[in-house]
Amino acid sequence: MKLEVGYIQIRDIQTADKSSVKDGILYVNTKELEALALEDEHLKAVCFDVARPGESIRITPVKDVIEPRAKVEGPGDVFPGVITKLNTVGSGKTHVLQGAAVVTVGKIVGFQEGIVDMAGIGAEYTPFSATYNLVVDFTPKDGLTAHEYEAAIRKAGLKIAYALGKLGVNVTPDEVKTYEYPSIMEAIKKYPGLPRVGYVQMLQSQGLLHDTYVYGVDMKQSLTTMLSPTEIMDGAILSGNCVSACDKNTTYHHQNNPVIEDLFEEHGKTLNFCAMIITNENVYLADKERSSDWTAKLVDYLDLDGVIISQEGFGNPDTDLIMNCKKIEETDTHTVIITDEYAGRDGTSQSLADADPKADALVTAGNANQVITLPKLDRVIGTLDYTEKIAGGYAGSLEKDGSITVEIQAITGSTNELGFSRLSAR
Amino acid sequence: MSKIKVVHYINQFFAGIGGEEFADHKPEIRDGAVGPGMALTGAFGDKAEIIKTVVCGDSYFNENLADAKKAIIDMVRSANPDIFIAGPAFNAGRYGVACGTICEAVKQELNIPVITGMFVENPGAEMFRDKLYIIATKDSAAGMRDAVPAVAALAIKLVNKEPVGASIEEGYLPNNTRVNFFEKERGSKRAVDMLLKKMAGKPFVTEYPMPDFDRVEPNHAVKDIKSATIAIVTSGGIVPKGNPDRIESSSASKYGEYDITGVNDLTDATYETAHGGYDPVYANADADRVLPVDVMRDFEREGIIGKLHNKFYTTVGNGTSTKSSKQFATEYAQKLKNDNVQAVILTST
Q: Which has fewest Cβ within 10 Å: A100, A128, A222, A347?
């Protein structure tokens, strides 16, 4: 598979009568987008707002962040099996509105959505303080179940991002990158002297607000499987989760998976990136055993020299992480795992809920229990009503002066376990 | 601003008195900087100065612990410094233990910041790394040049009460307290680099060494279940409706104790979950799914168990550190024992 990704740099988002991309500005007609969103009978109202880097804006509770993309050439289109017709994506050409993002907010489903600050210290902890965000605030119809509400918002966000992505189809990109992912036999012939490396991506699959969809399939119902990393760039993997928003992958994270990017960067130079494996993180022990057995089996079958394993979430999935690591190491394959830590507010607790001596190469995205005070910002998009209830908040989190003291686990993407950011701990 | 006042502790060797044959040298105090103190003075610039240097033989210190400690603390107290620095001791074992011991004593007695420096394999490092800041040094005095700037920089930070960064940034030995900081490279790049090293058989440093995991063996079976009092305890966050004690949805700072005398069934009108780490829909609809009061009442009625304890203990496991969990359990396990509970059913989610 060969995918050419054209990046169109977006330097601002403005509302306008006609939606378009011109000279790096994304113009949006919000009336049209509103009509698109309200096609879903579960949604009562939707309103739009723009948040730019450096503006004194707090966005919460954030559910998902999506990068506008669309296909220019090749089979299928982005978000296959969910927003567009089912087809194998990952080849041809795709255009990206880089620097723009759709951020979905609305009243909470559980306790679980996150905070994105566009300015102040909180901005340093989330990658989405650096994007131009079209924030979409949804109001559901009365009497919806939590599951119906979550699905409606998830799909509406993707629809909006796709509609924006299509505005870039006829725009000349500022930069083009080509990603080639040949068959494993071809890859081995091409780089016979380089170590064969795979990437095992663990996907959150524990239930409401903890789900991940692959070509529209709920990952908890899938066995461990393989796909091309270029398919992921075309939106084959979609986020349905933001529980403890610090270490959950938004759709944007999947679209821009940094492990894939950094493996491609070394591909053909120091290593041969020839296998992409995805596996789930279900709650039942039998599922954990089965999925990790399959992960190790595929790694062994492919005769890889080393793999990177990225986790999503913490606690319960620490078990899946350690099972994957241990079983893969037992096939004589080297592993490096990427995780984050829950070392307590004072940093003195054991960081993981499971451990094994075989997990001797670990990259950490930081201690999610670290407490931070976020200053009052001029404007709130969404609502602060849930600040003390969301994961990372506590009674007294919201001060009278509008500042918030929370654990960084409340900040969207702060300890992302794809290694998206530079935060770490020792 | 006036200069920070430092008292520096060194052994007989670094004071230029002599080697092993002079290790019985009794504590003495001198004005100004001596030996390695000169290098420290250079690193301090105009920010700090060594006002006094305490010199003590390694054998004397370790063989006359109580007397040595008392004498040295009195000397330090009389100098009234802002900070106490010992060593660095590099890989000298008795010197390292002396540096660690006297630092800990000064910290406790005089309540001022303390720093020492050692090679990671110095026995003093293992003894004191969790209690003090120990700057990591090479195994011999050849490492003085690298150690001195790190000691000086951390000393100034500690006196000025500035936030102390992660061990890797400040240069102190990892001390089982995890501190966040921003790396130069993102995590994915670090993972690729680490994997390349690991595959090539080159040395690499994990960012979190695996802890010794605390696994609990199951207890013996209850001998007479028919007359036993059984309690139910959960990390699934079941609380009376409205979460009266406001247990956090993640990273709980407390647990709840609730009376269930006369409660036969948990309903959506009376109980809910405070837990933010799983789909709450089914637990909120029927909290017995997580905390099985209904089934336990059936067992009680049918004589399968003696009785259900009239209190349950609950917290949220989600994002709660193992240290906090252990602390909660230590407390309520004692309460359960005091209430003559024979067995506990622990439910998770």
A: A222
Sketch the domain layout of chain A as residue ranges: 2-181+196-410
CB burial readout B38-72, b (16+ within 10 A) else e = ebbbebbeeebbbbbbbbbbbbbbbebeeebbebb
DSSP for A62-98?
A: EEEEE--EEEEESSS-SSBTTTB-----SSEEEEEEE
d(CA A122, CA A417): 18
User: With the CA atoms of A155, A117, B279 and A321 taken in that order, what torsion angle do they form, in degrees rounded to the nearest 10?
Assistant: 100
pLDDT tens sequence across B32-88: 999 999 999 999 999 999 999 999 999 999 999 999 999 999 999 999 999 999 999
- Nearest CA to A316 out of B276, B340, B198, B300 is that of B276
DSSP letter (8 states) at residue B144: H
A196 to chain B: closest CA residue: B199
Query: Where along chain B do its domains lie?
Result: 4-170, 225-347
Q: With 90 as the cut, is the pLDDT of residue A109 above it?
A: no
Tokens at A371, concatenated: 């407490």
Residue B167 near chain A (CB below 8 Å): yes
Q: Which amino acid is at A9?
A: Q
> Which two three-digit tokens encode residue A277?
């494996």
Q: List phi, psi (to 5°) of A382.
A: 105, -135
Reported residue count of chain B is 349
Considering the domain delimited by B4-170, tell me its CATH architecture: 3-Layer(aba) Sandwich (3.40)
Active site residue A242: yes
Decide if A208 and B280 are in contact by the 8 Å CB cutoff.
yes
Angle at which helix B144-159 crosses helix B36-44, to 10 degrees, equals: 50
Of A123, A100, A128, A95, nearest in space to A12 by CA: A100
Please name the helix (run of DSSP H) or strand (run of DSSP E) that holds residue B39, with its range, or none: helix B36-44
Task: Tell me the C-alpha distance between B21 and B97, whole Å.
Answer: 19
Longest CA pairwise span in chain A (Å) = 65
pLDDT in tens, A324-373: 999 999 999 999 999 999 999 999 999 999 999 999 999 999 999 999 99
Contact assessment for residue B102 and residue B132, using Cβ atoms and an 8 Å cutoff: no
Question: DSSP secondary structure string, B223-246?
Answer: S-GGG-EEEEEESB-EEETT-TT-
Q: Kindly list the residues from chain B whose CB atom is less than 8 angstroms away from the CB atom of residue A362.
A: 206-208, 210
Report which of B52, B88, B349 is spatially closest to residue A210, judged by C-alpha positions.
Answer: B349
Verify whether the Cβ–Cβ distance A422 to B182 is below 8 Å: yes
Closest CA to B285 of B241, B248, B316: B241
DSSP state letters, A110-127: SS--EEEESSSGGGGG-G
pLDDT tens by residue, A122-136: 999 999 999 999 999
CB-CB: which of A341, A394, A419 is closest to B191? Answer: A419
DSSP per-residue letters across B150-185: HHHHHHHHHHTTPPP--HHHHTBPP-S---EEE-SS
The type of residue at A369 is N
Report how far residue B52's alpha carbon sits from residue B236's, in angstroms, rounded to the nearest whole number.
Answer: 58
In 3D space, the residue among A266, A261, A217 whose CA is nearest the CA of residue A237 turns out to be A217
| pLDDT at res. B163 | 92
- Judging by DSSP bridges, how do beta strands B28-31 and B48-56 pair with one another? antiparallel
Handedness of CA A370, A371, A377, A383 (dihedral sign): positive
